[in-house]
Amino acid sequence: MMLLLARLALIQKILWSPLRSLADAADLTANYRATISTGDTIALFVGRNKLLDILNQPGCMGVRIYYGLDSKGEKRMVLVGAAANEDDMEKGVIVDELNPCTHECSSANSLNS
Questions:
Q1: Number of C-alpha atoms within 13 angstroms, CB side, residue 38?
Q2: Which candidate in 9, 39, 95, 113 could, as Cys together with 108 as Cys, close a disulfide (CB 3.0–4.6 Å)?
Q3: Alpha carbon distance 55, 57 (integer Å)
Q4: Using an 8 Å Cβ cutoff, are 53 and 65 in contact?
Q5: What percentage of the chain reaches a pLDDT higher than 70?
Q6: pLDDT, mean of residues 42-57
Q7: Rounded to two decimals, what is the model's pTM?
Q8: Where are the alpha helices (DSSP H) in the chain?
Q9: Alpha carbon distance 86, 60 (integer Å)
């Protein structure tokens, strides 16, 4: 029972937590960019349709993002739906074809410059 209550509290925190401010998000991305070389991937882009394919699955309450490496050692992200109990929806839609962004991905802004 305690485990169930703890999980419900975590889900509530995730679903109703305030959004991060732009200034905080800019600090996080700047900290990351300070650790990489010029030309390294600074972000990944996933289109709306791919996200909706995951989110529109029956029982899906969110998206879990896994870190991965491909056979060339390149960083990859794997997105999978998560149910209300936080279990991965392994038999559902899984997205791993995201477009990497180097410094040319978006016009300059506080998240990428």
A1: 0
A2: 113
A3: 6
A4: no
A5: 81
A6: 94
A7: 0.75
A8: 2-16, 22-33, 48-55
A9: 9
CA 81 to CA 35: how far, in whole Å?
30
Task: Please tell me what DSSP assigns to residue 47.
Answer: -
Pairing verdict, β 75-83 and 94-95: antiparallel
Q: How far apart are CA 80 and CA 90, in angstroms?
A: 7
100: tokens are 């990497």
Distance CA 82, CA 104 (A): 32
CA-CA distance, 98 to 79, in Å (whole number)?
9
Classify the C-alpha dihedral 106-33-79-14 as positive or negative: negative
Tokens of 99: 């477009």
Of 29, 31, 55, the closest CA to residue 44 belongs to: 29
What does the alpha-carbon distance between residue 51 and residue 56 come to, in Å, rounded to a whole number? 8
